[in-house]
Amino acid sequence: MQKILVARPIFPDVIDRLKQHFDVDWNNADVLGADELARRLADKDGALTAGDPVGASTLAAAPRLRVVANMAVGYNNFDMAAFNRANVLGTNTPDVLNESTADFGWALMMAAARRIEESGHWLRAGHWQKWSYDSFLGGDVYGSTLGVIGMGRIGQALARRARGFNMQVIYHNRSRVAEQIEAELNAQYVSKEELLRRADHVVLVLPYTKDSHHTIGAAELALMKPTATLTNIARGGIVDDAALVEALRAKRIAAAGLDVYEGEPKLNPDLLTVPNVVLTPHIASATEATRRAMANLAADNLIAALGEGPRAERPPSPINPEVLGKGRT
């Protein structure tokens, strides 16, 4: 029986499903360190990960490894050049989390705009003694301008929500989306600089790559309106968190909502010192239905990729399908 490693705690019933096909080594405890991950992958044919870094040295230490299924859409934890050199398949879990992630991004944006976390902390501290006309004045979402950077599946889901709020939608992407999609979403393609100048609410939903590192830094924050908000539900590293702290502290922008951070689960401690930021621990896809769908899609990818004979199938969501059918090198 082929062997797989499940590197993180996941739903036990998904483990039971995988055990019908594989000899499963399940890490149902803390995150594995790099050395322990490599050690436990040494005799495995496949793995299910959730953000665990897998690079050239890890692949070299696992000569039998044929597929690594990431329980996430983003796969910046994979060194895909190393995967391709070794003819190891990587897979991810797109589409199943689009709507729940867009819901959460919308909630985070609104919480930042309306100062929900800031006012909640103030109330819990016992400061609320009377109503005041100027208490925690925030910015409107209805009728404002939404700027989406990264008009993929989740970006488009956000734009669909904007229609119900009578918002103007502008977007920037590596490439312009089809005219039909623009028309359906009533979305206008603009440069990143124009988006930052015009948008009342900027939401980041682009993938993390070396080219998108610090897409938003001090220079970009300086272009934004002082009344604008910034929401990041993409990946840490897309925003220069230190520059954001300074912009928030100086009120060069009104507020921010962050679900992802540079170096997470650690985060810049200065983020905890500014009141006008909403902070959540990378939970944009965290509904039970969505996380189950992600786990099962990762399992589907493993079962298909490691199938033999009549069980062999094309995995549902390969990242580098060009290696399919090739052996390890």
Task: Give a short overview.
By secondary structure, the chain is α/β, with parallel strands linked by helices. It is built from twelve helices and twelve strands. It folds into two domains: 3-96 and 288-323, 3-Layer(aba) Sandwich (Rossmann fold), CATH 3.40.50; 98-279, 3-Layer(aba) Sandwich (Rossmann fold).
Question: Could you characterize the architecture of this molecule?
Answer:
- The chain is of the alpha/beta class.
- It has 2 domains: 3-96 and 288-323, Rossmann fold; 98-279, NAD(P)-binding Rossmann-like Domain (Rossmann fold, 3-Layer(aba) Sandwich).
- It is built from 12 helices and 12 strands.
- The protein has helices at residues 12-19, 34-41, 56-60, 80-86, 98-113, 116-124, 153-163, 179-185, 192-198, 218-223, 241-249, 288-305, and strands at residues 3-6, 23-26, 46-49, 67-70, 89-91, 145-149, 168-172, 187-189, 201-204, 229-232, 255-258, 277-279.
- The two termini are 22 Å apart.
- The model has no long low-confidence stretch (mean pLDDT 96).
